[in-house]
Amino acid sequence: NTESLQQQDNQHYLHPFSDHKSLREQGARMIVKADGVYIWDSDGNKILDGMAGLWCTNIGYGQKSLANVAFEQMNELPYYNSFFQCAHPPAVELAKEIAELAPPHMNQVFFTGSGSESNDTVLRMVRHYWNLKGKPEKFTIIGRHNGYHGSTVAGASLGGMKPMHQQGGLPIPGIHHIPQPYWFGEGGDLSPEEFGIQAAQELEKAIQDIGEDKVAAFIAEPIQGAGGVVIPPDTYWPEIKKILAKHDILLIVDEVICGFGRTGEWFGSQYFGLEPDFMPIAKGLTSGYIPMGGVIVSDRVAGVFEQEGGEFYHGYTYSGHPVAAAVARENIRLIKEKGLVEYVKNDIGPYLQQAWKTLGDHPLVGETRGLGLLAALEVVQEKEGRVRFDSDLDVGGMCRNTSVSNGLVMRAVGDTLIISPPMIISRDEVDELITKARKTLDLTMESLKQ
Ligand code: PLP
């Protein structure tokens, strides 16, 4: 039962991304089963999972064929590595299938166990590439404030989450951060278009400060996820592309959230017309059913690795794990069979966005925004002048807790509320999500008045 599970949890389980003191006081919500877009807790509450777990169960819960292929693969070949000139069919087939979905100039995949490992891999590949090109001084990678690229030492360093840096001497050397293109929070009186150019020019400024010959790469999410579903103004990416081309700097587009359909394209890079050198992937690759990540690499980079030779001293025991690869293949097959990417682009994405926008008339809402199946709203004290609540009140946290008690998982980043539901969500389920989100706002407003 819930109480005994919570007791054991308190005694033995150190949770990721948790305040252990308050967790122990409140007790964790025990999630015991899931189906479609719903999860159930150990008290029998049915909750609409507006976040697809951690932005990952794109295919939804309860897809039995994923379990079946895992079972079959475990019986056939449960494990083998791809170090030292070995390979196995599931990883080889998966790499080919991913390359077919990626932009045409990206045809090789390096497998990892998670998004964080993918970004560690990227950092090492970038430096390997410039070493092979005879330019080891091209060493610095530029990331963005509030970017999230994982929790390993390199991932957290590439990311721009201040609290993560403050807890342990991060970032590691050779990483620099520039402001994010967050118009609602930082745009002031500029139009979104003007602000997009200004935000992109921060990259130019940083390159001038550091020196073009020392900058190796720029890393960014197509849409910043954990930073608050920050959708860049239309002018941002085209300007960034120009700057990178001018200075011969590699582009890393972190597709861990946007990849596998969330924007209505297979990858966010395709939505924004980007030509990355690296695309770290994870999450939607297996819809979270089993851990797996990877880095999709451009022909120009992979070509240098091949021409120059020399071992790349990097890899994981579980790189290309056969069971994970089999599950990923089945997941991709299902996404294709169900036409989910097109569904997000032409049907459920626009439907959700139009419904989400209606929340903008609520007194607590300063802005709604979204794209595909990602959306955010800004909770404000006063709409005029975008006045925020005192951060000590943690109104975002209040909304998140009210929402889950009311049957909807939403995430809070400060006072920004976020959703990223499974791609199989129906119109009726979107309606339910919106009704519950509005109720969350109403209930929060009532408590704030008390
Ligand atoms: N990159 C992005 C954009 C992410 O959102 C995340 C996780 O949320 C990661 C990397 C890290 O992935 P993982 O948690 O699988 O290590």
Automatic annotation (TrEMBL):
Keywords: Aminotransferase, Pyridoxal phosphate, Transferase. One of its GO terms (molecular function) is pyridoxal phosphate binding. It holds the Pfam family Aminotran_3. The keyword Transferase applies. One of its GO terms (biological process) is biotin biosynthetic process. Its cofactor is pyridoxal 5'-phosphate. Coiled coil: none annotated. InterPro entries: Aminotrans_3, Aminotrans_3_PPA_site, PyrdxlP-dep_Trfase, PyrdxlP-dep_Trfase_major, PyrdxlP-dep_Trfase_small. It comes from the Bacteria. Belongs to the class-III pyridoxal-phosphate-dependent aminotransferase family. This is Aspartate aminotransferase family protein.
